[in-house]
Structure formats: structure tokens, C-alpha cells
Design goal:
Largest sheet: 6 strands, mixed
Structural class: alpha/beta
Strand content: 15-25%
Oligomer: single chain
CATH architecture of the largest domain: 3-Layer(aba) Sandwich
Bound molecules: iron/sulfur cluster
Helix content: 25-40%
Radius of gyration: 22 Å
Number of strands: 19
Low-confidence stretches: none
Number of domains: 4
Distance between the termini: 39 Å
CATH class of the largest domain: Alpha Beta
CATH topology of the largest domain: Rossmann fold
């Protein structure tokens, strides 16, 4: 039974839809005691999972049960914020009478959806840096991923997902769209952009990336949000300011006040993350401070050190990300077990409302319209790499007619990856090493 479910998940091309897109059929080759559904959706403004849970609670539970069946886990916990009342209610209804499943209510803080935070909230355990959740007997899957698993076991591949389009658009909305839908079409469906000079963030406002060219962006299996902000919005300036320019300012302005470390959620879990130490090492050109890498390796790139901690307007999270990348490239591993969790961790949590205020996003956190589905676009672009691992190899050629759900990209033999499928029926109009374009006919 395990192999049968894993095969179905593999054929459907399911990946971690709330993160970097790790292939789910590989992730589930483990034997956890507990499956945790990450229904926290902690990025400000984004409401993709909230509406998914309201609409498809039954399917999310079916996904949980399939994962539990295939991994042998005896317990399933759905961690959802109590502020998402309707979603929590729907999930509660869907687990009613199922003894192995329960709901865990979370406070509205950022980053409640960080894997380490959610595991600690549910199990009281902290995973050593560099280890996987299975170390604590857990596997964690996001709500959208579980929905995709529920479809996979019915033989339906991943061709759609929920996306929030918000910020400086006339009619912000959350809707279910085909994978490969052009971001430009979605901006049009949201009533269009309200200003001439704007930037587009792909993903959540804090952890997402600024699109270099929004007209060349298309929805992938991991796109949960499209946020439009004025080009001179502080968040955009922070994300796009030249790295060396920032470093120069940091060298003269960092006063080693330590506030960045005090607000760091990974530091408060005893994981040894210390952004102020990274700043010291960079500004003093003293890499010895980073000898064991512990100060950087446990970072989850949430950005709180920058957006909430630093009063000198510096960007420690960008420096720590750079240092972490370099350490990982050198294969430096953390050798330390987690230290003590800060006894005042609860008091140190960053309320989402405060994060919205500090990032200048409060006015965009509106009642976002919820639309079931949108009109199918004329053309979709299916990227061959929407996951961790190697890109898929195209298995169609220009001129081919494809049906919705047909595989258009396969994973090379013995490589890590996830299949990609046509999200609309139509004609293949372009094939490259990066994508397959399909036009509706
Ligand atoms: S981005 Fe900053 S606050 Fe977030 S985990 Fe990394 S160091 Fe800590
Ligand atoms: S909060 Fe800012 S000024 Fe203080 S140590 Fe961190 S980076 Fe430096």
C-alpha cells in the first residue's frame, strides 16, 4: 500500500507547495510517529491556504489520512491559527469522529509557519540544525500540499493552486489558477495595477523575491502570492538595495545592540542563530567569529531581524543569508545540539499586526475577495523545474496536442525531481530546456 500511494504522489508531481518544492514522494520515505499539517500561513496578507482550508477541509483531511497510511504514522495534527476561525471550524468538522486526528490552534504571530516553530508548538521538541523533522518523529506538510496529495491518490496531477494577488491592485483577490498562468494576466484579473512605478513580489511579502521582469513570471507549484508595492516602498528598497552598498553602511552603523538576535525566532528556540554576531564578523572582517557556522546555519530567512529588530535600518537577514550560502557551499555543518528554549519565548513572539505595521503593509491587509476559479488563460508556461532537484526533460514537442493533466516533463532516471503536467488542454507552441508553452485551441 505504501509503494502504491508513493507512486501515485510521484506520478501526480506533488511537491511542498508552501516552501521550496521538495518532492513529496521522496519526503514521505520515512516512518514518523506524527504527521503535522502546516496550516499556519504566517506571511502577512497572503490568504491562499485560508481559503483552501475553508473550501477543501475534507480533501486536506483525506490527504492527511493518505500520508498517515503510507508512512504508518499513528497521529495527525493540523496546526491552524485561531484567527482563521472559519478555516479552523471547517477542519474541526472534517476531523470529527477521527480519533487519530486533532487540531492545534496557534496564535497569530510571525513566523508561526516556520517548520521549527510549528514542530515546537505541537511536540515541544526542537530539531538540531541540519537535521530533518523525522529526528523528532515528525513529518510536516503544508495545507496545499495535502490537498494535492488527496487529488494524487485519485489519479489527478498537480495542475492548479490557490494564489493571492494583493497590494497595489484595484481588486485584491485569492483564487485558484492553473499552474503556468502568466502573472500579468492575474494582475489584469485583479483589476490592474493602481500606479505607474511599481514592483512585484512573488511569494509572501517578507520571504518572497522581487521579480526582475513581472511580464516573464508565471505561476508555479510553489507560488502562493503576488504582491504589488510602490517601487519606493521600504520593503522593496530593503530587498533590492545593492548588497555591497548595504555592507558599507552596516560597517559604520551597526552598534552591536543585539536587538536583531533578541527578536530572532530561531535564536529563541535555542538554535544558536545570532545575526548580531554575523554583523560583527562582516564589519570587522573577522571570519573566526563564524568558525562553527552555528550563528548562521539555523537561520530560516524570516527577515524579522531586519524588519522588526534593527533600529539602524540595516538588513542583517541579507548578510546572514549570504554567509549561510557560503557555509553550505563549503559543506560546513553545525555540530551543536539545540540549547535551552528562551523561557520568555511566548513574550518574544512577533504579533502579525506589529509585523504589518513595521513593514508598512497594514493598509494592504484588507478583506481580500475570494473567487473560486478564474478564466483559463490563452497560454500557460509550464516550467520544467518547479521543485528541488534537477529540471525535468520535456516529453512533448512543438505542435503536439496535449490534454489537461498530461505529463509534459519527466524526471531524468535516478535524479531528484517531480513530474510536470499540462494545466490546460491545447497545442504545444514552444519547448525549451526551461519550459513548455501550451496554447488553448
Ligand atoms: S532571518 Fe533573522 S530573524 Fe529570521 S531566523 Fe534568520 S537571523 Fe533569525
Ligand atoms: S539590530 Fe542592527 S544595529 Fe543592532 S546589532 Fe543587529 S544589525 Fe547591528
Amino acid at each position: 500500500m505504501k509503494e502504491e500511494i508513493l507512486k501515485k504522489i510521484e506520478f501526480a508531481g506533488v511537491v511542498g507547495a508552501g516552501g521550496a518544492g521538495f518532492p513529496t514522494h521522496v519526503k514521505l520515505r520515512c516512518s514518523p510517529l506524527t504527521v503535522i499539517a502546516n496550516c499556519a500561513e504566517c506571511e502577512p496578507i497572503i490568504k491562499s491556504d485560508k481559503y483552501l482550508m475553508e473550501d477543501y477541509a475534507k480533501e486536506i483531511i483525506e490527504g492527511m489520512e493518505a500520508v498517515m497510511q503510507c508512512t504508518g504514522a499513528k497521529k495527525g495534527v493540523l496546526a491552524v491559527k485561531h484567527k482563521n476561525k472559519k478555516a479552523a471550524e471547517e477542519l474541526k468538522k472534517a476531523v470529527s469522529g477521527k480519533k487519530s486526528l486533532s487540531i492545534h490552534l496557534l496564535n497569530n504571530y510571525y513566523p508561526a509557519g516556520d517548520e521549527q516553530q510549528i514542530i515546537y508548538e505541537v511536540t515541544g521538541r526542537v530539531i538540531p540544525v541540519g537535521e530533518l523533522p523525522i529526528k523528532a518523529g515528525c513529518v510536516v506538510l503544508n495545507a496545499q500540499t495535502l490537498y494535492h496529495v488527496s487529488q494524487a491518490v485519485k489519479g489527478i496531477p498537480v495542475t492548479r493552486r490557490n494564489v493571492t494577488i494583493a497590494g497595489e491592485v484595484k481588486e485584491p483577490m485569492t483564487t485558484e489558477v492553473p499552474i503556468g498562468m502568466p502573472v500579468s494576466s492575474l494582475l489584469g484579473l485583479a483589476g490592474g495595477v493602481t500606479m505607474a512605478e511599481y514592483a512585484v513580489i512573488i511569494g509572501g511579502p517578507l520571504m518572497g523575491r522581487v521579480a526582475e521582469n513581472p511580464w516573464q513570471e508565471f505561476v508555479t507549484k510553489t507560488t502562493n502570492g503576488i504582491i504589488v508595492l510602490p517601487v519606493d516602498h521600504p520593503l522593496i528598497e530593503k530587498k533590492t538595495d545593492d548588497f555591497n552598498h548595504q555592507l558599507k553602511i552596516a560597517k559604520s552603523a551597526c552598534c552591536q545592540c543585539n536587538y536583531c538576535t533578541l527578536v530572532c525566532p530561531r535564536s529563541n528556540l535555542g538554535l544558536g542563530v545570532q545575526p548580531h554576531k554575523i554583523m560583527q564578523a562582516l564589519t570587522l572582517n573577522n571570519p573566526l567569529i563564524l568558525a562553527d557556522g552555528q550563528a548562521a546555519l539555523g537561520c530560516c530567512n524570516c527577515g524579522l531581524c531586519t524588519y522588526l529588530g534593527c533600529n539602524m535600518n540595516l538588513s542583517p537577514h541579507r548578510f546572514i543569508a549570504e554567509v549561510r550560502t557560503q557555509l553550505l557551499a563549503k559543506k560546513v555543518k553545525s555540530s551543536q545540539e539545540p540549547g535551552n528554549v528562551n523561557p520568555f519565548r511566548n513574550e518574544s513572539k512577533a504579533p502579525s499586526k506589529r509585523v504589518l505595521q513595521r513593514t508598512g503593509l497594514t493598509s494592504y491587509d484588507t478583506d481580500i475577495r475570494h473567487i473560486g476559479t478564474v478564466q483559463t488563460p490563452r497560454v500557460v508556461r509550464i516550467f520544467l523545474k518547479q521543485h528541488i532537484g534537477v529540471p525535468c526533460t520535456p516529453v512533448v514537442k512543438e505542435g503536439d496536442f496535449v490534454k489537461k493533466g498530461q505529463c509534459v516533463g519527466a524526471v531524468p532516471k535516478k535524479a531528484l525531481g517531480a513530474l510536470v503536467h499540462a494545466s490546460i488542454q491545447g497545442k504545444v507552441v514552444s519547448v525549451s530546456t526551461e519550459y513548455v508553452d501550451i496554447m488553448k485551441v
